[in-house]
UniProtKB/TrEMBL annotation:
Natural source organism: Bacillus badius
Domain of life, per lineage: Bacteria
Residue stretches making up the Amidohydrolase-related domain: 49-437
Protein name: Dihydropyrimidinase
CDD domains associated with the record: D-HYD
Residue numbers spanned by region Disordered: 447-469
SUPFAM superfamilies, alphabetized: Composite domain of metallo-dependent hydrolases, Metallo-dependent hydrolases
UniProt family annotation: Belongs to the metallo-dependent hydrolases superfamily. Hydantoinase/dihydropyrimidinase family.
InterPro entries, sorted: Amidohydro-rel, Hydantoinase/dihydroPyrase, Metal-dep_hydrolase_composite, Metal_Hydrolase, Metallo-dep_Hydrolases_sf
Amino acid sequence: MKKLITNGTIVTAADMYEADLLIEDGKIAAIGKNLGTGAEEVIDARGAYVFPGGIDPHTHLDMPFGGTVTSDDFETGTIAAAYGGTTSIIDFCLTNKGEPLKNAIQTWHEKSKSKAVIDYGFHLMISEVNEQVLEEIPLIIEEEGITSFKVFMAYKNVFQADDETLFRTLLTAKEHGALVMVHAENGDVIDFLVNKALKEGNTAPIYHALTRPPEVEGEATGRAAQLTGIAGSQLYVVHVSCAEAVEKIDEARKKGYQVWGETCPQYLVLDQSYLEKPNFEGAKYVWSPPLREKWNQEVLWNALKNGQLQTLGSDQCSFNFKGQKELGVGDFTKIPNGGPIIEDRFSLFFSEGVKKGRISINQFVDIVSTRIAKLFGLFPRKGTIAVGSDADIVIFDPNKERVISAETHHMNVDYSAFEGMKVTGEPISVLSRGEFVIREKEFVGKPGSGQYLKRARFGSQEKPAEKVR
Ligand code: URP
Ligand code: ZN
Ligand code: ZN
């Protein structure tokens, strides 16, 4: 079946031009003018941008965490993602110490395969490195196409790994062609500060932020970057929230280390004061790392603009306020960490970034799609509009205004972290491998139609476009 998208403005990380797009067998078959012959369906994109589908490199769907399970699974989470202009996600597969890594991967396949409506891959958590893990990693890279491994430097006694584990993961990743991702906060220092706060009777949500100061993020980021330098490996720092961490990434890149950084919409538009909302509502804004003092937002925007940070993830990790966030009433350490963002990442970033002149439209595409595809072994299949690429397309009205609200969003969660925020720009139709998932703002996809993404080894495809400084 051939489809033709006409009259739209195609935008990639490098270009912006008017052309028609011919889709055949799920791929982009031709780009140009007067391609109108033979298409069974013609889609008029007049006045709209035609973007490559967003890629969200950081999601936690159907994940046990904080004594509960995230409220969005692979069905509701990927439907919401599609509404928001995202056509691929890479979700974090949690592992259990002492168990074969392949068991965890099997569990994640079971959670996702009959539910996902868009394409999806997995990162794999590493919490220990022993002979069994060292044997399994190359097989997982080869057979599962999982080419990124996540190490937590925080969440003591839950996920936290020690420096030896991080270092050995970096060495293994270098040997086999994978990217190491870190949650960079100093978990030991946080644990000390948290216990002190509780002993002093400080139990409100704001103490979540006050016991995780920016210095603990800066310290862990710098440590991970230095270990990467020693290992000669490659590192991706997830959810960068503050100036201290940006400085460490920048410093490492200036030394020639292969280090990249991701931030998230919540750190660009929300701040620490939200944790002080009355009636325990501050719990809605509990993330790790925490929201920071407002001045950090400008630092993060500038870092995205000048290339010190390279990507935007959602860190989708939704918990209902009722019954889930409420687990932390009277003890902030029991508030499950995370929030619902998957649906808003793309349009919020367009509105706050492109519309407000903070980044160019090509940078927008690079940061929400292209660079992510390059770093995580999906390019050029995903992340761009080019002949031969998957027809993952977002037809986007750049002038449509709307107000974000839990009343209208599609995530399976009872609040929005961005409630009442006005955004300009909205996905109208979204195609995954040439099939509509969202058509004129209506979901028309099918659970189970999303395909599992085996990804290429780090560095085996086109290198990230920029030269590491
Ligand atoms: O608070 C957060 N970020 N929750 C999700 C888990 C993680 O650390 O990424
Ligand atoms: Zn994290
Ligand atoms: Zn996360």
